[in-house]
Design a protein that fits this description.
Elements: E1 10-12, E2 18-30, H1 38-42, E3 45-46, E4 54-68, E5 80-84, E6 89-90, H2 91-117
Antiparallel strand pairs: 1-2, 1-6, 2-3, 2-4, 4-5
Length: 130
């Protein structure tokens, strides 16, 4: 998935929760090493492009701060995290998947409840009001 991100976007990453993009940094392979090699990537060049030292452009680094937990509770975090943009996706994708999963779970749980406890006599008296 080759997506463009902007500062301020709400995203998900390989970290749990929802994050706000705070910075995007372009990077390139280091021309001192063969293209695509571990060293060319491990010694990447970040920031401004220099044709003498910069090789093939790599995925940008995305910096972000957490705004919500995985279940949607707001959270104040001053800690900045980052990762390669290939591990980042717009939050709406995860939110739609999360909502669909929980809607399906609710249907299954209601089915169990109806199947097992459709007769009010099966429900213990001290639990019948909950």
């Amino acid at each position: 998935m080759n997506l463009q991100f902007n500062i301020g976007d709400l995203v998900t990453t390989y970290y749990s929760g929802f994050y706000r993009v705070t910075k995007i940094v372009r990077r390139w392979e280091n021309k001192k090493y063969p293209e695509g090699s571990f060293n060319a990537i491990a010694h990447d060049i970040v920031g401004e492009f220099d044709p003498n030292t910069c090789g093939r452009e790599m995925n940008p680094l995305i910096y972000f701060k957490q705004e919500y937990t995985a279940d949607g509770k707001p959270i104040k975090s001053n800690r900045t995290k980052f990762c390669d943009s290939s591990f980042v996706q717009p939050a709406f994708v995860s939110l739609k998947q999360f909502i669909k999963h929980h809607e399906e779970s609710i249907i299954r749980l209601n089915s169990i409840l109806e199947k097992e406890y459709s007769n009010a006599d099966k429900i213990p008296k001290n639990l019948s009001s909950t």
